[in-house]
Design a protein that fits this description.
Keywords: Aminopeptidase, Hydrolase, Metal-binding, Metalloprotease, Protease, Zinc. Its cofactor is Zn(2+). This is Peptidase M1 family protein. InterPro entries: Aminopeptidase_N-like_N, Aminopeptidase_N-like_N_sf, Peptidase_M1, Peptidase_M1_dom, Peptidase_M1_pepN, Peptidase_M4/M1_CTD_sf. The chain is α+β, with helices and mostly antiparallel strands. It contains 10 helices and 22 strands. The strands form 5 sheets. The chain has an 8-stranded mixed beta sheet with strand order 6-5-9-3-2-12-15-14, with no helix packed on it. A 5-stranded mixed beta sheet has the order 17-18-19-21-20, covered by helices on one side. The protein has a 4-stranded antiparallel beta sheet with strand order 10-11-16-13, with no helix packed on it. The longest helix has 20 residues. The structure holds zinc ion. Zinc ion binds next to helix 8. The site of zinc ion has 7 residues, from helix 8.
């Protein structure tokens, strides 16, 4: 995931940035060159840290171009928000909840393997204007055969319609429901099928987590813990399953129905509706689930991987934005080629979709084969975009694509490992941008961003280690270090 970062202030290096852009489209990137450059990177890093001459020139640049007051004020405001979210003072709505429902502090040392794993997850979404019905059919098996520990599922802002085990409706006595959990006190001790139907209200979901509707489109954001706003689930990254997703909706209002994986079936339904059935053959944690439905059009292209797989590439936007996606498509193809050349990693499905929507909480999100972006990080036209805009699009398209391996196929055990997937993927996108443009300029920009955004936070009250020992609200992990790097 990448956050939408504050516009970096124009440094004294903007002249250099322009020079770098001239070399933008004429890069070569062999493995040998890349590793030689990595050595150079380490050297230049060292020199940045050790050379007083370099440091003093940077300092003098910053004196000439101080960080604008508005940026400081935004950092302050963000800090204040974060302090509020970890404060011990309960919010009014939380105060009404019982002690059982108050969010608990999660400790790394308390990690336990799940009692149950999920094998396959078949989801059906019936999208509606008043509410949406989500049906899930999950194949569940206990970690230890014969164990019948309670199965605890997370769920927030959900209306439970029905719950069945192996086709039989459960009586209310055998499960417990509170505002954050659905607990099955005695789940079967061998493999079983769990079917849950929930009703959700995407039109009223202003958190922009889970499934929400905005500007006429349905859209999801599930990292880190948004999937629990879609259905009851073990919402943790070490629960990895194979998913299918059937999306049903009005054909006129939502002509495009997207989810993860390959499209295996689509057709018309009664009452002016239609459906699309998606299948993702790779196991994934639920934070990588995605669904988009709306009136979108696509720029289509293709990429042939080095093993000969023909991958369809589509970038979806509202019709009026389509002409501004040329650079994004160029960036995607460059990232796919670079990951093969430098890391030996090739794409593993037949289709890769990117959706750009204006109302997206994060800068961008690496959902498996359905990346969702804030429009700002996809759209560019020569009339209005600056060199920095083009560079940002290249870097973020690359970042989210590279997550396909570092984060998606190889994922986190728990959220304490967030910095592993983000740190490695940021390193990969920095290498990509360096190979595609000027390595020196890229490094100066990155170090400058660290100094302007990371250092002030690390000197303030919300400083925390890259891997804290505990958290109350997972969202706080995404500040500071990740914000400054992404
Ligand atoms: Zn990321």
């Amino acid at each position: 995931m990448a956050r939408l970062v504050m516009q970096p202030y124009k440094s004294c290096c903007s002249g250099l940035a322009k020079t770098s852009f001239l070399g933008y489209f004429s890069s070569s990137s062999s493995l040998v060159q890349a590793s030689r450059r990595r050595n150079c990177l380490q050297q230049s890093l060292k020199s940045i840290h050790t050379s007083p001459k370099y440091t003093s020139s940077e300092v003098s640049c910053r004196r000439i171009h101080p960080l604008p007051f508005s940026s400081y004020s935004r950092i302050k405001q963000a800090s204040r928000r974060l302090i509020c979210s970890v404060a011990t003072q309960p919010q009014p709505s939380q105060a009404e909840e019982s002690k059982m429902d108050t969010p608990k502090e999660i400790f790394l040392k308390d990690y336990k393997m799940p009692n149950y794993y999920f094998d396959t997850v078949d989801l059906t979404f019936s999208l509606g204007e008043e509410h949406t019905i989500v049906s899930s059919k999950i194949t569940v098996y206990p970690r230890i055969e014969g164990d019948s520990s309670p199965l605890v599922l997370e769920g927030e802002d959900l209306k439970l319609v029905s719950i069945k085990i192996d086709g039989k409706e459960l009586k209310k006595e055998v499960y417990h429901l509170d505002s954050r959990h659905l607990t099955l006190s005695s789940a079967p001790s061998a493999r079983f099928t769990l079917e849950i139907v929930t009703e959700i209200y995407p039109q009223k979901n202003t958190s922009l987590e889970g499934l929400y509707k905005s500007s006429g489109n349905f859209c999801t954001q599930c990292e880190a813990e948004g999937f629990r706003k879609i259905t009851f689930y073990q919402d943790r990254p070490d629960i990895m399953a194979k998913y299918t997703c059937r999306v049903e909706g009005d054909k006129t209002l939502y002509p495009v129905l997207l989810s993860n994986g390959n499209l295996i079936e689509q057709g018309d339904l009664e009452g002016g509706k239609h459906y699309a059935l998606w299948e993702d053959p790779h196991k994934k944690p639920c934070y990588l689930f995605a669904l988009v439905a709306g009136q979108l059009q696509s720029r289509d292209d293709s990429f042939i991987t080095r093993s000969g797989r023909n991958v369809s590439l589509r970038i979806w936007t509202p019709a009026e934005d389509l002409p501004k996606t040329v650079h994004a498509m160029y960036s995607l193809k460059a990232a796919m080629k670079w990951d093969e050349d430098v890391f030996g990693l090739e794409y593993d499905l037949d289709l890769f979709n990117i959706v750009a929507v204006p109302d997206f909480n994060m800068g961008a999100m690496e959902n498996k084969s359905l990346n969702i972006f804030n429009s700002k990080l996809v759209l560019a036209s020569p009339e209005t975009a600056s060199d920095a805009d083009y560079a940002a699009i290249l870097g973020v398209i690359g970042h989210e694509y590279f997550h396909n391996w570092t984060g998606n196929r190889v994922t986190c055990r728990d959220w304490f490992q967030l910095s592993l997937k983000e740190g490695l993927t940021v390193f990969r996108d920095q290498e990509f941008s360096s190979d595609m443009g000027s390595r020196s300029v890229k490094r100066i920009e990155d170090v400058s961003r660290l100094r302007n955004y990371q250092f002030p936070q690390d000197a303030g009250p919300i400083a925390h280690p890259v891997r804290p020992h505990s958290y109350i609200k997972m969202d706080n992990f995404y500040t500071g270090v990740l914000l400054s790097l992404s």
